[in-house]
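Researcher: Here's the sequence for the chain we discussed earlier.
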Amino acid sequence: MRDTAFELVDDSGAVRARLGVTPDGGVALDLADGDGRIRVTVGVEPAGSASIKVADREGTFRAALGTWIDGSSSVELFDAGRNHRISLGEGGGRPTGLSVWDGAGKLRALLAEGPAPDREASAEFWDRDGHYRAGVGVWPDGGTGMELLDEEGTLRGRVGQRPDPPRSPSTVELYGADGAFRVAAGEYPDGAGRINLWDGEGRSMAGPLLDPSVPGPDARPDDGDEGTATT
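Model: Thanks. This is the structure I predict for it:
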């Protein structure tokens, strides 16, 4: 027996399942509930994607599992308002991992690996206005740690291990609203531990007890270093 479509009906004559070729050349299996609402669709699209889509009792599709035409594969979850809320996927030039959106469609959280060179492996967070605010992970430059940004996108704090060879020092860094250093503490590449402070003009406020490279109070003015120190 061959045909382009087959239907399965219940005792009342209502169609509960349909298997057939779609008008665009795909093929799909639709499963309906007792009220005639399609609750599950298994399909293969002409362009090459294959998926399983699941709807709630109102007929709104809430979940999809598939392989897509861009070469990616994923599980997608939607709320009752058809807003995309969660994606777990890989491939297609996208991060491999978990993405979470809020009800307004803003990306709020990401736990992922890649793609290079933008990301190695990290957990990242955005505020309700869509601004990237925090991240923790292993970064593409080889460093590790946590970074905090303000609502303007300016880096304000970082705790982690820098990629600088050969010692890969660990540091704590605080920045002003202008993005300039205010506080830096940690192990320097030479193996020494130091704390450096800067004022609002970028001048070093550290003393010799904190950083031996900073001149003492008896040093001549032209011996001092009022430039911005670096970690």
